[in-house]
Design brief:
The protein is of the alpha/beta class. It has 13 helices and 10 strands. The strands form 2 sheets. Strands 1, 2, 3, 4, 7, 8, 9 and 10 form an 8-stranded parallel sheet that branches. Strands 5-6 form a two-stranded antiparallel sheet. Helix 6 packs antiparallel against helix 7.
Length: 305
């Protein structure tokens, strides 16, 4: 089975994290519905015969962006295609984007130039006191964002707090869905699951109570607003480990979603680390190779030569 992962679908371009353009998204859905039988993963999670079928697929969205309902939903309806949407409950409650989006948006839109990043745990080449131009800010965030994904949650929050205070002139976008949007999605036959409370990277959290908070509170918030505790937890940024999986099971989830850019085989993969194939705003030939999984196969051939 192939699980195809999307995030933002939007005609507006972004220099750092470009949403998938709307015509490309329609091309993807048209192609996928022609080549595969599309199911909600939650509907077939216990049907091994379907999960092991390479002509079966699912459509998934992470984060809960408003453009999912504005641009993606009409196309899904056009092709009679159901999808699962995994939402960050704080982002839905407060209409604030994920920390990754806030980070990039702040660097792109601030007029401030002073930024002191000199923490001991940050590599010397990422220490900075001043970023004079938009080009310098773009170059710096392209380097600091990957680093922030590798460090413990507590350290990452120190850096993010410093950036937020330094770039306090930026008014964040209101680009997330609300609970009424999610109710509409469910009424149309789609599914809503959890993507945690704050989009924290679960494998970088050392305190098990914090992990439990991210999983339990987000699930309970969905239950409060939508009427059920979700079957599925989508790990933010694909970050999980054995502790994450154990706590997810203990808190009541039945499915855990990773990324991995690979197909799902229930005989080989754990239901709490289901791989997904993420699709991007790329040329159609490359997107088509991702959908067929030929791109990953080619990478593996090159890697082992």
């Amino acid at each position: 089975m192939k699980n195809f992962l999307f995030h933002r679908i939007n005609p507006k371009r972004d220099k750092l994290w470009d949403p998938m353009d709307v015509p490309l998204f329609e091309k993807c859905i048209r192609h996928i519905t022609q080549k595969y039988s599309v199911f909600l993963f939650e509907d077939i999670a216990e049907k091994v015969d379907l999960l092991s079928n390479n002509k079966v697929a699912s459509i998934m969205f992470d984060d809960g962006y408003k453009d999912n309902i504005e641009f993606a939903l009409p196309i899904l309806e056009k092709y009679n295609c159901k999808a699962s949407f995994y939402v960050v409950t704080d982002c839905i409650d407060k209409n604030i984007p994920t920390w990754t989006h806030i980070l990039e948006y702040s660097f792109q839109n601030t007029k401030n130039t002073n930024l002191l990043i000199d923490f001991d745990f940050v590599p010397r080449d990422l220490h900075v006191k001043k970023l004079d131009s938009p080009e310098q800010r773009l170059g710096y965030v392209r380097k600091i964002k990957p680093f922030l994904k590798t460090i413990p949650s507590s350290q990452r929050e120190l850096v993010l707090k410093r950036i937020r205070s330094s770039f306090d002139d930026v008014q964040q976008e209101k680009i997330m869905m609300d609970w009424d949007d999610l109710k509409q999605i469910i009424e149309k036959g789609h599914y809503v699951g959890s993507h945690t409370v704050t989009h924290n990277m679960l494998a970088t959290i050392s305190n098990e109570e914090e992990i439990k908070f991210e999983l339990m509170v987000s699930g309970n918030r969905i239950k409060e607003k939508l009427g059920y505790f979700p079957k599925t937890i989508s790990y933010p940024i694909g970050s999980y480990n054995e502790v994450t999986k154990r706590i997810a099971k203990e808190t009541g989830y039945q499915i855990g979603l990773a990324v991995k850019q690979d197909v799902f085989n229930p005989y080989e993969s754990d239901i709490f680390e289901v791989p997904r194939i993420e699709l991007y705003n790329e040329p159609w030939w490359k997107t088509k190779m991702r959908i067929s999984n030929r791109l990953e196969q080619l990478k593996k051939i090159i890697q082992y030569r």
